[in-house]
């Protein structure tokens, strides 16, 4: 799919991975006229102490990313539309909507759903650089969802899927745990009591817009650590700290500690930091740059 949009690149030594292809703010545009926020504030959370290292495993370097999407559960088309436009801003992914036989999935069940879709011919088995994304609708409970995770990525076991295929899962948290998984469009009680206000979602739905940000988070990590043996910090590959984990909660200049950062706000008061397909706007978190040794991303102060 030809993209006229500029790509946000994750710059790692000897490696350039296209993670998102939505367009950030036009160069030279000031969103707030703040003379104290400019290029010098482009990076947040800079540190020479973060020990992100390459562990010799493969990365997904195809541009655009070869992405295969599976919609699981009963999806409202109005919820799907913004997510589809976000994904089409990245790639031109084939997608499938198989019959949902259960509303409760374990982590292994996620692999089984993907394996069944491939076996049925709904999606191809692309073991040479492809990536898979399973999106669960409201009402589908996934192991650890809302309690410990909002999404995760891993790889399929050949014994289940016949191939080792990198995949990510993300769930829709609206109506279930938006205060956990749709930050900064919904806030947990302890934050709202402190006077912090939730941001207005760019597409009018906290669950959907929060899901988009989690998708961006997981796809960036899926691209740079698909088999959990490439780029991560820490010594435990079963619990790696990856490039999006290092910048959790940072969406603009000054972000961190419960403050999303300085982001663009449209005439309706909706917050965003990237443009996408069909005139859509999205708010996605920043990512760790090994080159800058800091969190980087689209900046309202540019």
Give the N-to-C terminal Cα separation: 29 Å
Care to count the β-strands? 17
Low-pLDDT residue intervals, each spanning 5 or more residues = 1-41
Rg on CA atoms, Å: 18 Å
- With strands numbered from the N-terminus, the spatial order across the biggest sheet is 5-4-7-10-9
Q: What is the share of helical residues?
A: 10-25%
The major pleated sheet works out as: 5 strands, mixed
Class based on secondary structure composition and strand pairing = alpha/beta
The fraction of residues assigned to DSSP E strands is: 15-25%
The topology string of helices and strands comes to EEEEHEEHEEEHEHHHEEEEEEE
**Overall residue-averaged pLDDT value:** 84
Please give the count of helices.
6
The dominant shape is: globular
Characterization of this structure:
Its main location: secreted. It comes from Urochloa decumbens. This is Protein EXORDIUM-like 5. The chain has 302 residues and is an alpha/beta fold. The chain is built from six helices and 17 strands. The protein has helices spanning 77-88, 107-119, 158-161, 178-181, 189-192, 206-224; strands at residues 8-12, 15-20, 52-54, 66-72, 95-96, 104-105, 130-136, 141-142, 151-155, 166-171, 231-233, 264-265, 271-272, 274-275, 281-282, 287-289, 294-296. The strands form seven sheets. The protein has a five-stranded mixed sheet with strand order 5-4-7-10-9, with helices on both faces. Helix 1 links the parallel strand 4 and strand 5. Helix 1 (77-88) runs parallel beside helix 6. The longest helix is centred in the last third of the chain and has 19 residues, at 206-224. It is globular. Residues 1-41 have low confidence and may be disordered.
């Amino acid at each position: 799919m030809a993209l006229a949009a500029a790509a946000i690149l994750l710059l790692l030594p000897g490696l350039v991975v296209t993670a998102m292809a939505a367009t950030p703010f036009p160069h030279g545009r000031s969103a707030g006229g703040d003379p104290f926020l400019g290029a010098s504030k482009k990076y947040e959370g800079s540190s020479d102490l973060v020990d992100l290292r390459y562990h010799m495993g493969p990365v997904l370097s195809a541009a655009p990313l070869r992405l295969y999407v599976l919609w699981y559960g009963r999806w409202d088309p109005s919820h799907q539309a913004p997510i589809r436009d976000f994904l089409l801003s990245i790639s031109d992914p084939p997608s499938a909507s198989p019959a949902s036989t259960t509303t409760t999935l374990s982590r292994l069940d996620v692999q089984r759903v993907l394996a069944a879709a491939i076996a049925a011919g709904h999606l191809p088995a692309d073991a040479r650089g492809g990536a898979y994304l399973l999106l669960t609708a409201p009402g589908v409970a996934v192991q650890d969802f809302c309690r410990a995770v909002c999404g995760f990525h891993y790889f399929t076991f050949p014994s289940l899927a016949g191939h080792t295929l990198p995949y990510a899962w993300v769930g829709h948290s609206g109506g279930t745990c938006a205060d956990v998984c749709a930050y900064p469009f919904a806030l947990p009680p302890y934050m709202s009591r402190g006077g912090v206000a939730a941001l207005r979602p760019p597409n009018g739905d906290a669950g959907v817009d929060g899901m988009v940000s989690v998708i961006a988070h997981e796809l960036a990590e899926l691209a740079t650590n698909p088999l959990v043996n490439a780029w991560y910090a820490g010594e435990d590959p079963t619990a790696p700290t990856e490039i999006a984990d290092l910048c959790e909660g940072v969406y603009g200049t000054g972000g961190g500690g419960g403050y999303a950062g300085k982001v663009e706000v449209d005439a309706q008061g909706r917050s965003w930091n990237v443009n996408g397909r069909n005139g859509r706007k999205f708010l996605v978190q920043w990512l760790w740059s090994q080159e800058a040794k800091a969190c980087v991303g689209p900046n309202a102060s540019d």
